[in-house]
Amino acid sequence: MNQKALVGVVGLALVLSGCSMRFEKDGIHVNEPVKVKQTSSKRKIKKVKPVLKKKHKKTEVVKKNSTLWNKQKSQMLNTFMKKWSAKRQQKFTPYVGKTLTLSSGAKYPEVLEKRRFVLGKKTIKIGLSLKGENKYDYNVVAIYNDNFKKHGMHLTYLFTLHRGKGVILIDESKNVNPLVVHQNSDKDLNKEFQRIINLKK
To answer: Strand pairing partners for 108?
Structure first.
């Protein structure tokens, strides 16, 4: 093999191995292969952690039921009832813890538990609630009665709280079951009762 052929073979081998050579006067010099850093075309994607919204616990708002009725309001109603009944030449006895016996024989507040009450041909849930607590559909906060002994009749006013509003029911029935009541139609009495209820005391 001649010298030119040998140089060609060596050169080809060096190219394949990644080496380079240069021809100088003192001979052929072989350089180390140049290492090329491969740059990845794939960019590193930073994982973004999703921002989780903090779940706020729903705080139950406990609404304190402001009592619509109290002793002070009972006294105010009693004062008004004395004036109101005097104009009508009537004398009402309020329920203050002692049983009210009607001329019919019925007794309050006992009948509120033992009898069925009907208003407008419908049975209603009614009961004594002197502090104005919402225990029934009609919460009785005050009872006033006037017996007409001569006629064997009575006129009993039941002052009630119904869905936050004042409703005065009148019992004129005999000692029967159910007891049928009807709503008071006296505007002055209704207005004063509601006014007392609305007072913030």
So the answer is: 100
